[in-house]
Write a structure and sequence with these properties.
By secondary structure, the protein is α/β, with parallel strands linked by helices. Helix content is 25%, strand content 22%. It contains 7 helices and 10 strands. It has a 7-stranded mixed β-sheet, sandwiched between helices. A hairpin with a 2-residue loop joins β7 and β8. The longest helix has 27 residues.
Length: 298
């Protein structure tokens, strides 16, 4: 991890590449049962290490399960299916031509591929090497960069726009590290749009059916959700997700130098009959599942 304020390695190539991660993450023991789910503190380094390993191990299954919904070149903001074509949160599609755009937590780079089709010049960044291999499999003429969003390997003022659809921010212990890095690499007047699980969902069980409609915990409990293997009384995290309240998210955005110009809470559309984990038509009609923050750098 690069300390806050320190510029990471610069990338100047425009060719599609994968930068090898500095070290491979250890897989869980083959004989181990499912990891235990708990709520406990997890810091910056532990969260990054756990989530890099989790996404590398689960990228294949994720793309098999959700690839048809995401498509190869759609820009979808979340499980509700809100499409950037409809939302225009980055600006009118016709104004994207020639813009340098950074996608953070790109996965298989579906959003970057859509941006390229509009004439933009995207760069797709992800913590997971295996996710970016899926981006290579699908194809595209834009760069792929394997790096931590808390230490972006780009020079100051490299991009006109940045976006992140459920990427990076839910999985980092200190979201301001990411937000400040995005602010640094954006040009003045640049826009950053990111989506995360709507904070209210943390008060409900992560279930798509009726059991997911009753409050089971405190919305104000910010203790991270951790999946871990416990050996000799010591837990080794293999997945970490962090909760921020809506107010926390707004304060993070403002403290990182952005202006919050819109907060979008997509409603569940009638056409979408699919379930995605705890997201479902039943819950989506009653409580929000996604929050999209539209931020601008002065």
């Amino acid at each position: 991890m690069t300390p806050p304020g320190r510029v990471g390695r610069k990338s100047t190539t425009r060719e599609p590449i994968i930068q090898e991660p500095e070290s491979a993450e250890a897989a869980p023991p083959a004989e181990a049962d499912e990891p235990e789910a708990t709520r406990r503190d997890a810091g910056v380094a532990e969260s990054a290490r756990a989530n890099r390993g989790w996404w590398d191990r689960n990228a294949d299954e994720y793309q098999i399960e959700h690839g048809s919904f995401l498509g190869d070149d759609r820009f979808v903001w979340g499980p509700e299916g809100l499409d950037e074509v409809e939302a225009g949160l980055l600006g009118p599609p016709e104004e994207l031509k020639g813009r340098d755009v950074l996608e953070i937590g790109a996965g298989a780079a579906q959003c970057a591929r859509w941006l390229a089709a509009q004439g933009a010049r995207p760069v797709a960044l992800d913590l997971s090497h295996r996710q970016l291999q899926h981006a290579l499999r699908i194809g595209g003429s834009f760069p792929l960069v394997c790096a931590d969003a808390s230490a972006l390997p780009f020079a100051d003022a490299s991009f006109d726009l940045a976006c992140s659809a459920y990427g990076a921010l839910p999985f980092v212990a200190d979201p301001r590290l990411v937000l400040r890095e995005v602010h640094r690499v954006l040009r003045p007047g640049g826009r950053f749009v990111f989506s995360v699980t709507h904070p209210i969902r943390w008060a409900f069980p992560d279930e798509p059916g009726p059991e997911g409609l009753t409050v089971s915990g405190s919305y104000f409990d910010r203790t991270p959700y951790v999946e871990e293997y416990v050996e000799n009384g010591v837990g080794r995290a293999v997945y970490v997700e962090h909760h921020r309240t809506l107010g926390d998210r707004v304060r993070d955005v403002v403290a990182s130098g952005f202006r919050l110009v819109d907060l979008v809470e997509p409603e569940w559309p009638a056409w979408n009959t699919s379930e995605w984990g705890g997201w479902s038509p039943l819950r989506g009609k009653l409580i929000p599942g996604t929050a999209i923050f539209v931020c601008e750098r002065d």
